[in-house]
Amino acid sequence: MRGEGFQRLFDGVMRTVHGRNYRNTASLGNLGDQGCDGYLFEERTVFACYGPDPYFRIKEAVAKMRADLAVAVRHLEIPGFMQKWIFVVNYPGTHPLLINEAISGSVDGLECEVWSRTDIVDLLMADARRQPLVSEFGSIPKEAKSVGRAYVVPESTQLPRRCAEAAIRLIRARLKCERSNYRSALSYWSKSVAADPFGALVAQTQLLLGSMAAMAMAGYLNPEKLQVGPLLREAEMSRSTWRADGQRAWNLMMVVLHSVDDHIQRKDDDAAPDVDPIGDDLEKLIATVVCGNRLALGLIRLYSRKSGQFETECLDEAWEWMLRIPVMATREEYQRRAAELKATGLLDTI
């Protein structure tokens, strides 16, 4: 959304979260809105919205932020009326220059912040209430109610969106034994892998990592002491497939685990495993992705058996971990990390 539409949308989101504690404001003649597009009474917080149409340019955003803050400081009493001032932009993330402007623009008795549209979505997902949502945005269409759980990748992560959503949809359809949905999910997943094989590898490694983390954090798995047999039975994977490609998928996931858990004191035998190099071998890459998906399925089934939860509940928990664990975003980042690990003698290039 842009312009006034962005401000109206922001007002709607804030009302679903804060109710009557939030008030949108109006501009009046020559007085304007005095730098206040919205107001939280109890927190004494003033919002200034910026949704440029058609493009977001950081220099113009900084100038707009500086001007809006100056207007608010000039017209609104600090701290009686305004204790916090927040600049809200329709950009996916918060640019460092805007953060710097907020820090430098703070005055005695006034705290300044910047919200991106990622912050708005996070606020809506965490705190919005059902009845105000219906009042602001309408009831859920009947055709949407039958779709089932939606897996949405936040903009704040570098996780490849289509690949991640496709991988988890495929597992969910398999867990629910829905033949038609499985065929549809398989087709969608296959197209996502074909369109972006490396993105599929990143997403699949992250899903396997999230599945492992869900089970491990519940106390049902020590990833350093994997019992392969039970996992392969639940994953419906043969020993030969495990040796050919499955172990590569698992070891790649373990390398990522070690890279995000470097602060943990490990035993000598808990070092990150060597990974069979993939290089430019597309068939090997795709085989790794396929086995990673099957191993994630196996972990979800194991977690369900041990915990007594529904398999779909275990999958949802794995999804939350999948989003929470940092993602190495690009091929260059993977190559850089691989070079670091190679220098330590832990593995050859991935």
Describe the protein.
The model is unreliable at about 260-270 and about 345-350 (pLDDT under 50). The protein has 2 domains: about 5-135, Restriction Endonuclease; about 150-345, no CATH class. It is α/β, with parallel strands linked by helices. The two termini are about 40 Å apart. Strands 1-2-3-4-5 form a 5-stranded mixed β-sheet, sandwiched between helices. It is elongated, with a radius of gyration of 24 Å. The protein has 14 helices and 5 strands.
As a percent range, the share of strand residues is 5-15%
* Secondary-structure content class: alpha/beta
* Main sheet properties: 5 strands, mixed
Radius of gyration: 24 Å
Mean pLDDT: 83
Q: How many structural domains does the protein architecture include?
A: 2
The geometry reads as elongated
Enumerate the spans where pLDDT stays under 50 for 5 or more consecutive residues.
262-269, 345-350
The CA-CA distance between the termini, in Å, is 41 Å
Q: Write out the strand line-up for the largest beta sheet, numbering strands in chain order.
A: 1-2-3-4-5
Percent range for helical residues? Answer: 55-70%
**Given the structure, what is the number of helices?**
14
Topology, number of strands:
5
- Topology as a string of helices (H) and strands (E): HEEEHEHEHHHHHHHHHHH
